[in-house]
Amino acid sequence: MQAMILMCRKLLPKFIGFGLVGAAGFVVDLTALTFALAFVDEVSARVFSFLCAVTATYSLNRYFVFAEEARDLSWLRGFVKFFVSNSLGGAANFATYLALLKFQPILEWTPQLALVAGTLVGLAFNFTLTVLFVFKQKT
């Protein structure tokens, strides 16, 4: 039980930092999308904005939230792991969104509420994979 409490004390500040970095990533995503829409179609713009957001959030997490864990990890290797992890988290986010909309008549989910639920699922998924797969805790 004490080990669990110690782990939570250590991970809570990282989770908060991860969430704040995610909020900054949303701003990057939205800004990059808006910029790219002036030049390319919606799908290409979204791919561009996602890549910008993942690059920004990886860099911020690497240097501020997980600095100690990233010390011996090359930038590129860590980025690839982070990209894969966040792509899986994005899939969990989207799957949650779609599942809730499918059952909307029963549960009365609006697209906005489904988006919030998907975002929370994605956040938990991304944080867990980031801690376990990208920035492994030093023992």
Automatic annotation (TrEMBL):
Annotated family: Belongs to the GtrA family.
Pfam families, per the entry: GtrA_DPMS_TM
Listed InterPro entries: GtrA_CellWall_Glycosyl, GtrA_DPMS_TM
The species this protein was found in: Hirschia litorea
Transmembrane segments: 12-39, 45-66, 78-101, 113-135
Record's subcellular location: Membrane
Keyword Membrane: yes
Protein name: GtrA family protein
Residues in GtrA/DPMS transmembrane domain copies: 18-135
Alphabetically ordered keywords of this record: Membrane, Transmembrane, Transmembrane helix
Membrane protein topology class: Multi-pass membrane protein
